[in-house]
Design brief:
The chain is α/β, with parallel strands linked by helices. It has 16 helices and 13 strands. The strands form two sheets. The protein has a seven-stranded parallel beta sheet with strand order 3-2-1-4-5-6-7, with helices on both faces. Strands 10-9-8-11-12-13 form a six-stranded parallel beta sheet, with helices on both faces. Helix 5 links the parallel strand 5 and strand 6. The chain is globular and about 65 Å long.
């Protein structure tokens, strides 16, 4: 059985790696080819190209990268045609994935086509829900409210659950983390998470560094840890060096999980990592900053009250969203200090909300990757 997997950014790469493990558990004779990052490559995928080229966030920022992205789309399509897989499954990044699927349909390539992680049609571009059936045979969603947007439009859709609820972060043993990194036992871990894309690091890290320096002066018992990914590690270190900021930088998933299990506070870019923090009860603020034009377009063409998944899923403001003009040293610092006080209203609200979130997501009850693997294998067998 030959499965072609495509993940265009780090969050999709982690999701793809978990899915690969689940598929191998159920069928030892599966071969994986396609496009993915470090995590998928560790599971046996030989990636066609470096996915760093695709990890671009923003409506305006993507423009300079268009020629390279189009070249990668063409090479991916040609590779699929040459390899003749049983299934092509794209993961997240629908803007990139859709072009692959549309091209395969246009060329009448007879291959089962699937997408994992529904585009957020409830936020913007709702019309996509009406047309996706033309390009894929099946859709897997992370959230229970999503299938209703697609099934009325002839697209078979299954809710499988969010991968964060099966993360080994929940069971990671972190007792040796401080000793391994020479962190005094009396220090409290504070996480700084400026994102996994180059433009996120450029936009957020300088502000986060200002906050780190202020907190270091005010809260003497804090120790700052900055988890990153290999694709942006050098940029992160360069920015830290330029601002004369000395924090512990870690770049592996296991180390990030250990640090998160011990964390008393996190300052994070908006994204999947914030959902993971909520699931393991780490008080945090979510920050984001993009160029003015990108922000203007987003505000005028999206239809959502919140940007953070915890707030979206609970439909209430549990985690502070410090976006654009609110993403300043002073505002982040104010919220961070409130979260360090376990008696503050903000701290109590977050902890209560995180408990509700875990219940809603089925933590301890669902295994999203196993469920997705079962659906995928059945679809392939039915087609054969």
């Amino acid at each position: 059985m030959l499965i072609y997997m495509i993940a265009g950014e780090p969050s999709g790469d982690m999701l793809g790696a978990r899915l690969m493990r689940a598929l191998k558990d159920k069928n030892k004779d599966i071969e994986f080819i396609g496009v993915g990052g470090d995590n998928m490559q560790k599971e046996g995928l030989n990636s066609l190209f470096d996915i760093t080229d695709l990890a671009i966030m923003g409506l305006v920022e993507v423009i300079p990268s268009i020629p390279k992205v189009l070249s990668h789309i063409k090479s991916t399509i040609n590779d699929i045609i040459a390899k003749k897989p049983d299934l092509v499954i794209t993961i997240d990044s629908w803007s990139f994935s859709a072009r692959i699927h549309k091209a395969l349909r246009k060329k009448s390539i007879k291959v089962l086509q699937m997408h994992y992680v529904a585009p957020q049609v409830w936020a913007w571009k709702k019309r996509r829900a009406k047309t996706m059936y033309k390009y894929i045979d099946h859709l897997l969603t992370l959230f229970p409210h999503e299938p209703k947007y697609f099934t009325p439009h002839n697209l078979p859709t299954d809710f499988v659950g969010h991968p964060a609820i099966e993360s080994s972060m929940l069971t990671t043993d972190a007792k040796d983390f401080k000793k391994e990194h020479n962190i005094p036992e009396n220090k409290k871990i504070a996480l700084v998470l400026p994102g996994s894309r180059h433009n996120e690091v450029a936009n957020l890290l300088p502000t986060f560094i200002e906050v780190i320096k202020e907190l270091e002066a005010k809260e003497k018992d804090l120790f700052f840890v900055l988890p990153t990914v290999p694709t942006v590690e050098n940029r992160v270190k360069d920015v830290l060096k330029a601002h004369n900021c000395n924090v512990l930088v870690i770049n592996t998933q296991n180390e990030r999980y250990k640090a998160a299990k011990l964390a008393k506070l996190a300052i994070a870019a908006s994204g999947t990592v914030a959902l993971e923090l909520a699931i393991i009860n780490v008080p945090h603020v979510v920050c984001y900053k993009v160029p003015f034009l990108t922000a203007w377009i987003a505000r005028h063409f999206t239809n959502i009250k919140y940007v953070n998944l915890t707030n979206i899923l609970l439909d209430k403001p549990i985690v502070p969203e410090l976006i654009q003009e609110k993403c300043t040293k002073e505002v982040i610092l104010e919220h961070a200090q409130m979260l360090l006080d376990e008696n503050s209203n903000l701290y109590q609200k977050e902890i209560k909300g995180f408990s509700e979130l875990r219940e809603n997501l089925g933590v301890g009850k669902l295994n999203p990757s196993q469920k997705a693997a079962e659906i995928i294998l059945k679809l392939i067998e039915d087609k054969r």
